[in-house]
Amino acid sequence: MTGGKSGAAVLGGLLLVGMLAGCGGGGGAASKEVPLDTLSAEQIYKKGELTLEGERNPKSAIHYFTEVERLYPYSDWARRALIMQAFTYHKNRDYEEARQAAQRFLDFYPGDEDAAYAKYLMALSYYDQIDEVGRDQGLTFQALQALRDVIEQYPDSEYARSAMLKFDLAFDHLAAKEMEIGRYYLKQRHYTAAINRFRVVVQDFQTTTHTAEALHRLVEAYLGLGLNDEAQTAGAILGHNYQSSPFYEDSYKLLTKRGLEPKVKGNSWLAKVYRQMIRGEWL
Asked: Which domain holds residue 41?
């Protein structure tokens, strides 16, 4: 932004400015609000800042920021007002409007210093809508893609690190969804369906916090099907990577109770995973 102030400084600080209450400045009790088209772009913009600071409903500030853009469309204040629209919509949890305003900013000012922030706001508008694990995960996928865009397109920006952290959390969220469904199938003794879910976690979500449990549940499911080689192999992978985990202790007890041990057996997909792991290509 102009004057050496970055988007983070303006959006984080929201400077306290002098009150713009009417033309005369005296603030007569019955004075009407001055028509915005008689004010400068800066004056209208600062009205929006004041409203955003002082009102409980952030959306009421949108009026001023949109008027700056309407009345002074080619000014630097219009550019600043547009990014503030995106910020204010997001603050008010109007996520679709926030995405639209951020996208318009990127369309009009792709090379601007606040482009990274606009892209980050778009990602946040998806990320902040991620619901509890039991709901549809379509927004999680959209959040992951948007966060990846921030990381890849603006790797040196101040938003890249935050995007990385949120990407990991969203990724973990997807794994949690697979685990929830897998546990349900396992409880119903639909072992094959459960295995399919836990396999996704082991193969596609290896870096999440759910991998150890997924391997343990595979031991349970394969034992339920009488597929001892696969159960032992899942236990071997679990023991190799998570020996101190309570999930490994549980798997070890399940196996030894049947006279089995955690050991790579056969040539299943799990055996291939184990061999890849030993070569350092897994986890």
From this structure: 36-173
Running DSSP on this structure, what letter comes out for residue 243? T
Same domain, 40 and 143: yes
Same domain, yes or no, for 168 and 188? no
Which residue, of 149, 173, 197, is where some domain finishes?
Answer: 173
Domain match, 149 and 197 both: no
Residue where the block lists tokens 């990577």: 241
Number of domains in the chain: 2
Cβ burial of 100 (10 Å; 0-12, 13-18, 19+) is middle
Per-residue pLDDT of the chain (283 residues; tens, 9 = 90+): 444 444 444 444 443 333 333 433 444 333 467 788 788 999 999 999 999 988 777 888 999 999 999 999 999 999 999 999 999 999 999 999 999 999 999 999 999 999 999 999 999 999 998 875 455 678 889 999 999 999 999 999 999 999 999 999 999 999 999 999 999 999 999 999 999 999 999 999 988 999 999 999 999 999 999 999 999 999 999 999 999 999 999 999 999 999 999 999 988 999 988 888 765 554 4
Backbone angles phi, psi at 137, to 5 degrees: -105, 15
pTM: 0.73
